[in-house]
């Protein structure tokens, strides 16, 4: 068998196998992976449960320096959003809303804070855009609420 035919057969097999993966598996993987990214970021901004660190205010004032809103507001908003929205993504409640909030946060980070990190932010945006457009899938509280109350 020629090397070209072997490669073609491997590609065909790969496509066949990946088409058999149920959607809920990758939807759950997307929700968990992106939630963990933002949750871990949130935990670096606080002491204890939810007390915002002084170093967080310093970062928002001097390193991030977001335009339009005071740095204190930005620090509180980002910290609490990074705690609340990933939680909602994990349980799948208000999935589209939570993903949209994190997508907006990703765009703010990309445009105003770390424009050089676009490859990573593009990956986050792709996952979040999928979740905004399609929801979190069948393993969500959204789906349970929809079935229970419709």
What does this structure look like?
This protein is mostly helical and 150 residues long. It has one domain. 77% of the residues lie in helices and 3% in strands. It is built from 7 helices and 2 strands, in the order ααββααααα. It has a two-stranded antiparallel ribbon with strand order 1-2. β1 and β2 (51-52) form a beta hairpin. The protein is globular.
Structure characteristics:
2 strands, 150 residues, mainly alpha, 77% helix, 7 helices
**Care to count the β-strands?**
2
Helix content: over 70%
Describe the sheet with the most strands.
Answer: 2 strands, antiparallel
| Mean pLDDT figure | 96
First CA to last CA: what distance? 57 Å
State the gist of this model.
With 150 residues, this protein is mainly α. The protein has helices at residues 3-19, 23-43, 54-64, 71-91, 95-113, 118-134, 141-149, and strands spanning 46-47, 51-52.
Task: Show the helix and strand layout.
Elements: H1 3-19, H2 23-43, E1 46-47, E2 51-52, H3 54-64, H4 71-91, H5 95-113, H6 118-134, H7 141-149
Antiparallel strand pairs: 1-2
